[in-house]
Structure formats: structure tokens, C-alpha cells
Amino acid sequence: MSYSPALHSEARMDLFRRKSVTQLQAEAAADHSLNRSLGVVNLTALGIGAIIGTGIFVLTGTVAAQNAGPAVVLSFVLAGFASVFAALCYSEFASLVPMAGSAYTYGYATLGELVAWIIGWDLILEYALSATTVAIGWSGYVVSFLADIGIHVPAHFQAARGTVVTLADGTTTTAIFNLPAVIIIAIVTALLVVGIRESANVNNVIVFIKLAVVLLFIALTIKAVNPANWHPFIPPNTGAREHFGYSGVVAGAGIVFFAYIGFDAVSTAAQEAKNPQRDMPIGIIGSLVVCTILYIIVAAIATGVLPYGQLDVPDPIAKVADAAGLGWVSSLIKLGAIAGLTSVILVQLLGQSRVFYSMARDGLLPPFVNRIHPRFRTPWITSIVTGIAVAIPAAILPVRDAAKLVSIGTLLAFVIVSIGILVLRVREPDLPRPFRAPLVWFVAPMGAISAAYLMFYLDIETWIRLLVWLAIGLTIYFLYGRHHARVAS
After folding, report:
1. Contact, 352 vs 386, CB < 8 A?
2. Which are the contacts of 145, defined by CB distance < 8 A and separation ≥ 6?
3. Across residues 70-87, what is the average pLDDT?
């Protein structure tokens, strides 16, 4: 067969075919398969539910101990700074295109199908491993809390395979798999199958408990802070780029960035919002501001109560509470942490299943994926598949490796969304935008640059894992998705 420049050009353009924003808006208005039941309180609570979790309850300790020392506070500031720019871009997109799918849908509208696939596949990694990471942290707090009340989870089933677990008598053993992490994922998956309203109501209650516990922790432990523990504020670099010094602070920001994906998860629920044009920006920006302030305060207190080298444990906030001599309040804080981490798992599994739903609706994944339950009106098959896919790595992965992969996936999504908002401003400047990102020609480039900068400081192993994951996704796209997409050229 002879080479045809016209056919080659057509195939190339096929990779970048787009859905117009007006087409997406029409689809959103016509699609009543998902239940529109979320108001601004629900959406803000979803964001807080996702953000206040592993960042405070787990990563504060590991990043302080291995990357930044007391300057983990600055790591949170850097990560929050980068998040604000991306949040403004997300808010404009979410109000303009109120559909499930988040950055995947936005990429389809601006940068074309191939980029949309890449970001959708990236979001699958982001949400799945986010839930995995949180489930691992949840397990650590549950094991600690149960030990407080005299119930001891067998050491072989407390942590990831190969993890050395210290027993009560000081001896050690090696874990086989993380049973509590698997159990919580199964419970949350069942809840998501039952319904979005029920899930949101449960989340609202948990978020209230979680915020109360965080505030209680701040109020009761601040008196135990020893300022000497903050010196040196930035420990000298050990010779490895991510171990302390300025580069360690930036590397720490790249890792704790994982903790800021909550507002991203809010945008995946746009198709289930009552008034997405008004409520999505409030939910996204409101949850980000509240949580960033709390992160900074808690990180400062944790490194002030204990030397940062002692915080590299699965439950650092519980350890700080014990060190502060809080007695029974320490167990209450652990219980609040367990509830808080539960809500994060719920929101991340919700976001994951909605991305699957959107990709299947567009033909990029098989149609059974977006099948709606006739009674519960939820994408039940995707929820169950997601639960299984998340439970497996939660049983065997250590928390730090999972968190790095989530962070690099989140940062890549932020880069694409920030670029996409500029492309849409140029391509369709007259679209009515219920929310407009202010100073967009500064905000959007800063969102892309700051996210890319933090990506650069993540280690080479994390980059390799991301590239392998993307290679698998591109193979699926070229073998299936490209030929079944419902978007006309």
C-alpha cells in the first residue's frame, strides 16, 4: 500500500480531535443518569474530606524525618502555593464544564483526545494510589488504637509485605500483608455502590469529627512545644538531593503535594452537583484555603513537640499526642484520625470511579465500565473494580512509595489543566464563564511551572514508574480507545 500524506495527516489529527465546550455543556444538561444531590456544603466537605487526611496524619512525619526536618512547614507552604494557581484554573473549568471526569474532561475540550487519554490514565493512577496510601495510613492508626484498648492485630497482617514489625516484647517479625487496609477499602467500596447521597452524608459527619479532632490536637499539644526542636530549622543536606537542605524542602513539597488533591476530587463530582456553576469554585477554593492553614499549624506543632527524626512512623500525630501526655485524649485523637482517613478513602474512590465512568462514556474504555445501577444510580461496576484494584497495592506497598506516585500524577494533571485553561481562553475567548480565574496569564503559567518544578525534584524511580504506567495506558489507547471513541473528527 502506497504512502498517502492525506491519510497520514488525517490519522495524526484524529489523535487531537476535541469535544467542544458547548457540546460538553449540552451533554451535561442532558445526562440525568447520575443523581444531582450535592450542594455547596457537600462539595466543600468533600474537598476537606480528601485534603485533611494523610498529609496531616501520616506524611507530616515521614517528610519531616527524611526530607525537610522542621522545615516541613515550608514544604506545605510550597505545595499550597502551587495548588492555589491550579485550583483557580480548576474552578474556571469546573464551572464551565460541569461534568464528571475532572482534568480528563477539561483536556478533551482543549488539548485533544490523546492528551485527554494521557491525563485520564494519569488520574486513574492518582486516585487509585491515593486511596492506597491513605488506607495504609488508616491501618497504622487502627492498629495503634486497637492496641490501646487491648486488642492486638497479628503482626503478620499489620503492614506491607516485608515490613519489619516490632512486637510488644521488643522482638521483631516480618509482615505478610496489610489486612486492615484491605478491609477499609472493601467497606468504603460498598458504601459508594449504595449511593452518592449516602456517601456524601457519611462524609459530612466524618469531616465534622475530623476537624474537631485536628483543632483539639492543636489546642492541647501547643503547650508541649519545645522551640529547641525547631533548630536547625532546615537541617544540612546529607549529599542526596532529597535529604534535607533546600533541595530536601522542595522534594518534601513534591511528596506532600499528594495531600492537596482534595480539590481535584471535588471537580470529579461536578455532574452530581445541584448548581455546579456557582458551587464548584466555592467548594474547590474554600476547602484548599482551610486545609492549607491547618496543615502548616499541625506540622509546626508536631516538629516542635518531638525531634523530627522520631516522626518517621505510620501514625506520627498519635505519637506526638502521646509525647504531649494527653492520656485518654490521645486515643480520641487516634479515633479522629481513623475517621478522617476513612473520608479521604471515600472521596478518592469516588473520584476514581467517576473518571472511569467518563472515559467509558466517551468510548475510550469498554461500555460495561459506565453501567449505572438501576436502583442506586451509581456507576457500580467501576466502583467495585476500583475497590479491587486499590486493595491489592494497599496490602503490599509501603506508604512512601505510593505517596510519591500519587504526587507525580497529581502534578502532571495540574500542568495539563493550567495549560488547557490558556488554550481555551485563546481558542474560545467569548464563552460565558460563570467563574473566571483572575490574572489568568500569570496564574495559569505559574500553575504549570510550579507543578513542573516540584515534579523535577521527585526521584528517578518515581519518574520511571510514571513512564511505565503511561506506556501501558498508551498501548491500551492505540489498541482500543482510539478506534472506539465517540468523538467525531
Report:
1. yes
2. 318, 331, 334, 335, 338
3. 86
Listed in sequence order, the residues at least 6 apart from 208 whose beta carbon sits closer than 8 Å to its beta carbon are none
Residue 266 DSSP class: H
The domain locations on the chain are 38-483
For the segment 191-204, what is each residue's pLDDT rounded down to a tens digit? 777 765 555 666 66
For the chain, the straight-line distance linking the first and the last C-alpha, in angstroms and rounded, comes to: 24
Residue 178 carries which DSSP code? -
- 3-class SS of residue 166: strand
Reference 121, options 334, 416, 335, 442; nearest CA is 416
* 40: pLDDT strictly greater than 80: no
How many CB atoms are closer than 10 A to CB 194? Answer: 17
Are the C-beta atoms of residues 486 and 363 closer than 8 Å to each other? yes
DSSP-assigned letter for residue 104: H
CA distance 271 to 130: 22
Q: Could you tell me the pTM of the whole model?
A: 0.71
pLDDT in tens, 136-171: 878 888 887 888 788 888 877 777 666 767 666 667
Q: What share of the chain is helix, strand, coil (3-state, %, to 5)?
A: 75, 0, 25
Amino acid in position 475: T
State how far the Cα of 383 lies from the Cα of 473, in Å rounded to an integer.
20
CA dihedral 41, 82, 221, 49 (to 10 degrees): 30
Q: Are 99 and 358 in contact (CB under 8 A)?
A: yes
> CA separation (Å) from 138 to 162, 334, 344, 437, 474?
19, 10, 10, 36, 33
CATH of 38-483, one of 2.30.110.10, 3.40.50.450, 3.40.50.2000, 1.20.1740.10: 1.20.1740.10
| Residue 61 to residue 69: CA distance in whole angstroms | 9
d(CA 71, CA 233): 6
Exposed e or buried b per residue across 312-342, where buried means at least 16 C-beta atoms within 10 angstroms of its C-beta: eebbbbbbbbbebebeebbbbbbbbbbbbbb
Residues 296-349: pLDDT tens digits? Answer: 898 999 999 999 888 887 778 888 888 888 777 777 878 877 877 887 787 777
